[in-house]
Specification:
- There is one protein chain.
- With about 325 residues, this protein is an alpha/beta fold.
- It has 2 domains: about 240 residues, Phosphoenolpyruvate-binding domains (TIM Barrel); about 40 residues, no CATH class.
- It contains 13 helices and 10 strands.
- Helix 6 links the parallel strand 6 and strand 7.
Length: about 325
Amino acid sequence: MGRKPWVKGTTSIEIDSPLPPMSPANLLRRILASPGIHQTPACFDALSAKLVERAGFHCCLAGGFSISAAKLGMPDAGLISYGEMVEQGRLITQAVSIPVIGDADTGYGNAMNVKRTVKEYIQAGFAGIMLEDQVSPKACGHTQGRKVVSREEAVMRIKAAIDAREESGSDIVVVARTDSRQAVSFEESLWRTRAFADAGADLLLITALTSKDEMKAFCETAPLVPKLANMLEGGGKTPILNPSELEDVGYKVVLYPLSLLGVSIRAMQDALTSIKGGHVPHESMPSFEEMKEILGFNSYYEEEKRYATISNQPSS
């Protein structure tokens, strides 16, 4: 613990000066600098983020697809607003101690909008922000309708994000994503990732790569900047590789964008079918005690005792 003298007049007094806690961004950077590949499931609310943390993962993604589905019941097609993502992100980051990367789609406008988005994502507690080069309104990755902005505008978005980070005195991790593999060509996607790296991006992603050879070529591009793999569960354009295979190819981070949302949808469908058939509870349902433990009821009751008065006794 650091200590420093405080001098007033001729009197010297030493006071405790504890080191500040590590910021979410610094924690994420430490994770990225550590050995191995880092699995990163996508969450969509505070509860799913807590489950990611309890399962032992070191970081998670607040994904646009999952949040659009869970919060709006709508497709990931640029329909969810900047404000809705910030609001949901703040609830997620407050629920966990692991770093959370926030999906910011296109940055919600031009370079000035990108700067505001970055600053608000920092305030919301995100450790990282993912920005892409699609036109607005965007389309969901691996689906039809991919269109990207010009090279100049795509790079300017990343430069604006870096400027916003510096102006905020933050160290938020900037993740640069390109959809140009599907919209233009593989060669174009490699050019853009190199340009993003030169602009200061901390982590690079090309969506919808179609082969292991393309994935390897991507990982060999801008070798000093770590690469992110997006394993679209259930059938996307990119081959599904296990973490060991991805690490061998050269990736540092692997995203699982749909796992939690997908199994949640199926579990709710199965539970509703079971209830409709008169079978309650569903066999896979956790007990009430387990749910209370996950949500922190016991720790809440213990803390409640600290503030109990004669007229305000804690619940039994």
